[in-house]
Amino acid sequence: MNQHHDDGEDDEAGGNRGPLMALGVVAVLILAGLWLTHILGGAASVQDCLAAGRTNCAPVHSGG
């Protein structure tokens, strides 16, 4: 026969771990999407500048 000891603490800790891991993965994916949007937006503006026939399209980075 199986003896089941139910004190509640182990079940709650194990039950919270999955949703917290999923929340962490979603947060990382959102941050990666925002970063990628920023990078692609910069590349798109340079491409638009070049498509307009301009020659000085290099992005200007401020020193800091």
Question: How would you explain this protein's 3D organization?
Answer:
It contains one helix and no strands. The relative contact order is 0.06. 67% of the residues lie in helices and 0% in strands. The mean pLDDT is 82. The chain has 64 residues and is mostly helical.
List strands and helices in order, with pairings:
Layout: H1 9-51
Structural class: mainly alpha
Give me the Rg, rounded. Answer: 25 Å
* Biggest sheet character: none
Mean of pLDDT: 82
Helix content: 55-70%
Count of individual beta strands:
0
Strand content: under 5%
Number of helices: 1
Following the backbone from N to C, one meets helices and strands in this order, namely H
User: Residue ranges: pLDDT <50 for 5 or more in a row?
Assistant: none
CA-to-CA gap between the ends?
70 Å
What is this entry, summarized?
The chain is mainly alpha-helical and 64 residues long. It contains one helix and no strands.
Notable traits:
0% strand; 64 residues; mainly alpha; 1 helix
